[in-house]
Q: What sequence folds into this?
């Protein structure tokens, strides 16, 4: 059996767009440290890919993991060891929402959905957001939280 | 080009510095978003840099004696200054061992084997006192005595090394922390088949060591272990390949086994004999007895701590292994006598009257109250090799000065959450902290009442008023001296009160006086029309308060006193008074201690009216363990002197005043 909880957030990106904000180009390195076959340089993540990676990083960073920044991140994995109830999903959504709104100013959250799979002891998370300054392109990040075996 | 600032030592500063650098490049843009991969890399770089700077900071601290915190490094710095930190030191006893019943065995010679001789039990553990060397005696009668045998607490161990000159890194390490480095003995034999060995001599300096001298040095190394260092054919003989080195040493409990008395020691040694027919045997334990020449074991100490090494090493270096200035003497004595807590040296020319050509040394040991005569002789003997010219060192016992404090405070319990017990503890902490200050805890220490009162007042806003009542006591070491009357002098180092509400302005502990079957004490009773006056005499008073005679005098202005008494007990006595001036400045051979009698706390709202006036009660102390003269007759107890200048007969004449202001 599985159930899901989702929460929509106000599409503030439109307001931002209305205020005339434009998104700049974002460039980040890839932690795969693989080589670009053409340029022979390090693979670079650009724009929406860079932001998507940052969103994943923020959500999957455990509180206390970052050096000298103990409040950054979420407690997502700890919910895997709690009873799968709607309370856990709601708490998970709140955590994700909080960390992204605090630390990722490049996005405007649209919707967060958490599906609990009791049989697999896992949560599937969907995060939908707009990139500030690019109103039309809804971005989606999804990942599954499972207990490490 | 402006050089970058590299002074950042905080994580945030380092991170900002790296980000500032990236900002100048257009290659990456996401560094200031916490979730970006680049931000994570910046964090790692900053963390790595922080570690490096921290390690560098700590490593550079360890390069100096003043800032180093690791013992190994401190010892290494001290070694460079020629200072070898004190190891654990065995407690010692000196004993006469008597062997009887030898005539029947027709014994010609007896020998005390080295190794365990005496044993004792302390806190459930067995300890032994060992003889470092075997002793032999030729016997002429039924009884033989091994006199003044020095026995050291500990257990003897030995370790053997075979010299391997192909191994440049070979070291001769004693694998134990608790060794008495003075006990190390080294012998070297040519090879494993050799039956003779050469005993090497321990040296602390290279002065006078020739290339062929068989000497060794003992040095503390890492992990508080000790290494034996041999010569190099320039300074002492170098070891040859294949030689067998045997290192013998004692592992000791240090200062724990000081003050072990004869009653708690048991003989466990071995005495062997050779009779007239050259037959050997072992003397039965029942024929062996021993008596200590020292009152108890003494001289044991634990290894020197870090603070002490930091303090002593530079001073020892400044002394340059010669005793010229006063500080030279002080640092050398601290090195020679590891058990020294406080050392004060005064040139004889500074005394009144001056004693030229002498240096007076006062030592307060860490364990025990005085340095034993044997240890004094050893210190003087060791010191002589450093003394320049014909200066005679004289070691004096320290004088103990007790300040008995009774802190008082009143407070408003509605203005604080602190309980009376908490306030008491805080007051005690203040007094204990004051006692540990360098200004106070030293020969010639200074005491100021106002400093403690100010600290008590600052404990909490709820404290309304505070005071510290004082009594001061000087310890006088009364000597039996064949029961001959001896003169003693002392000082309270401040003016003392002569008008008190109590019966006595000065009182001493009870002590044994020859001819009186009950103990007596020294005091100054009040007399006169209102019983509020005292004269400048010190009186001998019996247990019932009867005056037995004038024995001395006191100057209330200076606090100096002297008296002459005979005694039949060796116990020191305290002579106490109440200071008029609470600022006390001791002399160079007296060290102060503070004793907290009680802490009194009251709340005026509860009707607790603390008397915050200075101390004005000086009660006669309890008789305690003091005894009278066992040889005295019954009639000697209450013989008042007939020529009492004040014509005072009994204690009933010293009626306490009911009016508290009468004597003020």
A:
């Amino acid at each position: 059996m599985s159930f899901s909880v989702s929460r929509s957030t106000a599409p503030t990106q439109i307001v931002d767009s209305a205020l005339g904000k434009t998104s700049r180009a974002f460039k980040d390195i890839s932690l795969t440290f693989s080589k670009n076959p053409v340029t022979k340089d390090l693979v670079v993540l650009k724009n929406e890919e860079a932001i998507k990676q940052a969103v994943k990083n923020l959500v999957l960073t455990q509180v206390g993991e970052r050096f000298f920044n103990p409040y950054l991140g979420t407690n997502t994995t700890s919910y895997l060891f709690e009873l799968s109830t709607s309370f856990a999903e709601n708490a998970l959504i709140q955590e994700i929402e909080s960390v992204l709104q605090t630390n990722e100013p490049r996005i405007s959250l649209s919707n967060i959905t958490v599906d609990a799979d009791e049989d697999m002891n896992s949560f599937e998370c969907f995060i939908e957001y707009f990139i500030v300054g690019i109103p039309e392109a809804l971005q989606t990040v999804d990942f599954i939280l499972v207990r490490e075996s | 080009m402006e050089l970058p600032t590299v002074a950042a030592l905080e994580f945030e500063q380092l991170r900002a510095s790296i980000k500032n650098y990236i900002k100048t490049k257009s290659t990456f843009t996401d560094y200031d978003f916490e979730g970006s991969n680049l931000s994570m890399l910046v964090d790692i770089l900053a963390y790595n840099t922080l570690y490096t700077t921290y390690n560098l900071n700590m490593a550079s601290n360890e390069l100096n004696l003043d800032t180093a915190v690791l013992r190994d490094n401190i010892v290494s710095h001290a070694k460079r200054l020629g200072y070898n930190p004190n190891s654990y030191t065995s407690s010692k006893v000196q004993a006469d061992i008597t062997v009887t019943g030898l005539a029947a065995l027709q014994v010609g010679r007896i020998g005390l084997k080295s190794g365990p001789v005496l044993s004792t039990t302390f806190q459930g553990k067995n300890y032994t006192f060992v003889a470092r060397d075997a002793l032999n005696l030729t016997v002429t009668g039924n009884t033989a005595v091994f006199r003044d045998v020095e026995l050291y607490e500990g257990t003897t161990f030995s370790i053997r090394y075979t010299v391997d000159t192909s191994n440049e890194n070979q070291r001769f390490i004693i694998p134990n922390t608790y060794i008495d480095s003075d006990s190390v003995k080294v012998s070297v034999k040519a090879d494993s088949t050799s039956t003779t060995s050469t005993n090497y001599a321990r040296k602390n300096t290279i002065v006078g060591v020739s290339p062929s001298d068989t000497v060794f040095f003992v040095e503390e190394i890492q992990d508080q272990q000790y290494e034996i260092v041999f010569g190099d054919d320039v300074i002492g003989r170098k070891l040859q390949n294949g030689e067998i080195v045997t290192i013998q040493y004692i592992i000791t409990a240090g200062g724990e086994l000081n003050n072990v008395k004869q009653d708690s020691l048991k003989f466990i040694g071995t005495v062997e004999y050779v009779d007239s027919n050259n037959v050997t045997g072992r003397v039965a334990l029942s024929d062996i007895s021993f008596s200590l020449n020292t009152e108890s074991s003494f001289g044991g100490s634990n290894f020197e701590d870090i603070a002490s090494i930091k303090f002593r090493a530079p001073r020892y270096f400044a002394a340059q292994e010669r005793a010229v200035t006063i500080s030279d003497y002080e640092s050398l004595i601290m090195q020679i006598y590891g058990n020294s807590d406080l050392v004060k040296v005064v040139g004889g020319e500074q005394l009144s009257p001056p004693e030229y050509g002498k240096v007076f040394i006062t030592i307060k040991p860490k364990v025990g109250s005085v340095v034993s005569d044997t240890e004094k002789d050893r210190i003087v003997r060791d010191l002589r090799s450093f003394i320049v010219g014909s200066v005679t060192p004289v070691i004096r016992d320290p004088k103990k000065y007790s300040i008995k404090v009774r802190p008082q405070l009143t407070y408003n319990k509605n203005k604080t959450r602190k309980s009376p017990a908490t306030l008491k503890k805080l007051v005690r902490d203040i007094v204990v902290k004051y006692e540990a200050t360098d200004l106070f805890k030293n020969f010639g220490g200074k005491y100021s009442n106002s400093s403690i009162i100010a600290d008590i007042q600052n404990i909490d806003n709820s404290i309304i008023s505070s005071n510290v009542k004082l009594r001061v006591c000087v310890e006088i070491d009364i000597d039996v001296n064949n029961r001959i009357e001896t003169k003693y002098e002392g000082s309270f180092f401040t003016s003392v009160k002569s008008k008190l509400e109590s019966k006595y302005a000065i009182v001493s502990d009870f002590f044994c006086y020859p001819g009186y079957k009950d103990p007596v004490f020294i005091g100054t009773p009040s007399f006169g029309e209102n019983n509020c006056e005292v004269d400048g005499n010190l009186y001998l008073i019996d247990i019932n308060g009867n005056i037995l005679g004038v024995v001395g005098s006191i100057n209330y202005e200076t606090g100096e006193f002297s008296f002459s008494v005979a005694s039949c007990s060796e116990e020191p006595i305290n002579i106490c008074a109440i200071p008029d001036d609470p600022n006390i400045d001791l002399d160079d051979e007296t060290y102060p201690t503070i004793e907290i009698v009680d802490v009194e706390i009251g709340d005026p709202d509860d009707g607790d009216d603390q008397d915050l006036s200075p101390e004005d009660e000086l009660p006669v102390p309890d008789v305690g363990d003091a005894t009278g003269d066992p040889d005295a007759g019954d009639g000697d107890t209450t013989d008042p002197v007939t020529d009492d200048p004040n014509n005072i007969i009994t204690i009933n004449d010293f009626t306490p005043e009911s009016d508290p202001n009468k004597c003020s």
